[in-house]
Amino acid sequence: MAEQEHHEVKRELKTRHLSMIALGGSIGTGLFVASGSAISTAGPGGALMAYVGIGIMVYFLMTSLGEMATYLPVSGSFSTYATKFVDPALGFAMGWNYWFNWAITLAVDISTAAIVMQFWLPSVPGWVFSLVALVLIFTINALSVRSFGETEYWLSLIKVVTVLIFLAVGVLTIFGIMGGHATGLSNFTYKKAPFVGGIPTILSVFVVAGFSFQGTELIGITAGESETPEKSIPAAIKQVFWRILLFYILAIFVIAAIIPYTSKDLLGSSASDIAISPFTLVFKRAGLAAAASVMNAVILTSVLSAANSGMYASTRMLYSLSLQGYAPKTFGRTNRRGIPIMALLGTTVIGLLTFLSSLFGERIYIFLVSASGLTGFIAWLGIAISHLRFRKAFVAQGHDLSELRYHAKWFPFGPWFAFALCLIVIVGQDLHSFATLDWQAIGVTYMSIPLFIILYFYYKIRYKTHMIPLDQVDLSKEHLD
């Protein structure tokens, strides 16, 4: 019998998989393409400040998630933690919110894959490439969790190697060893640099940086299928912090040193702007003629990696929602290989329908993409709240902190800092529209907030839930999967 009623996923992800999944989730088109627009907007100093700030916040979020995930390693973690430690209504809203976010992101990524492929094969219709990408991603996720882990490992490795080569070439270019003359650090004081436009523009770049780091929280979703979560999650978190600092901060420093912030080439922010990716520009400046084709290939692996992670994350969240009674029971079934196959099929169908809406109903597609815009930040807020409640309940019920396998550093500063910065970034999404009272733009930008609130109050009113008192928080370690 292919379908079974049992609810077991298989613990087959190794530490190297988790490290690369968390790292790969944060290195994508946000770094390869959009980092240029961040430098162009706020200048080199403003961009660096935004990425350092968000990088530190993401680290604290990962330590919060790590403490809970080593204590209770389950698939679809943040929804489960919000349900157990805060309020079932919050768990319900966070789970559906996160699933929706990644199902839509999957559709965006397969559309982007087609744009990237048309760089080489402009005469082939884009939908052909998107369909091939979707079938490929579905197959990888349907085989086994290990096939997902291995694919993500190698795709992420390509991105990491690219960044390392870029950093080496960039440093040689700054000193004039490659590409002719040395630029030194002159671009950091060019015209209005290093800080351009003051606090409002730096705040707007925090938003760009925040989107670049979305996906790092995947490490919490993978906890339920890790072979040794108590070892691999802390190890992955420690590595991710240093790698984010090394890759993001150094990469932006190199781009800012070589290309002045006034360059029009830095304005590209989507995958269709491969020819003017800051990475491509730096490689060309160093005299590497094939830069555009090479970077195109890297961006393709990056987009496929994001789609692969998106398919995995949304499938596991739907599976988790089913186990908690928040989604139909059929989505909680796994096959012999431990894959929640119905949840995978359900997510694939939504991804496909969203993609088709981009072909036949452009306005519906833009609406869906806008609606998923802030959902990642909402998930981060939920992680911070859940961790504050978890730790308070843990102490209130007479437990000793030495019982925890992993301790989040600087508690409670970490979750409070992450909570505050997430709120600032969410509010600061589109301050310009508030200033001009452009209600249509405000509606599009902040659409995910009312959707989340509707989900939350629907469940709260229907099931009359309340915030769980600290002494009644369920800290039992029975696995929910």
UniProtKB/TrEMBL annotation:
A GO molecular function held by the record: amino acid transmembrane transporter activity
Membrane topology: Multi-pass membrane protein
Transport among keywords: yes
Compartment(s) of residence: Membrane
Transmembrane segments annotated in the record for this chain: 20-39, 99-121, 127-145, 157-178, 198-219, 240-261, 286-307, 339-358, 364-390, 410-427, 439-459
Keywords: Amino-acid transport, Membrane, Transmembrane, Transmembrane helix, Transport
Entry GO CC: membrane
Amino acid permease/ SLC12A domain boundaries: 17-466
Source organism, top-level taxon: Bacteria
One Pfam family from the record: AA_permease
Protein name in the entry: Lysine transport protein
Organism in which the protein naturally occurs: Lactiplantibacillus fabifermentans DSM 21115
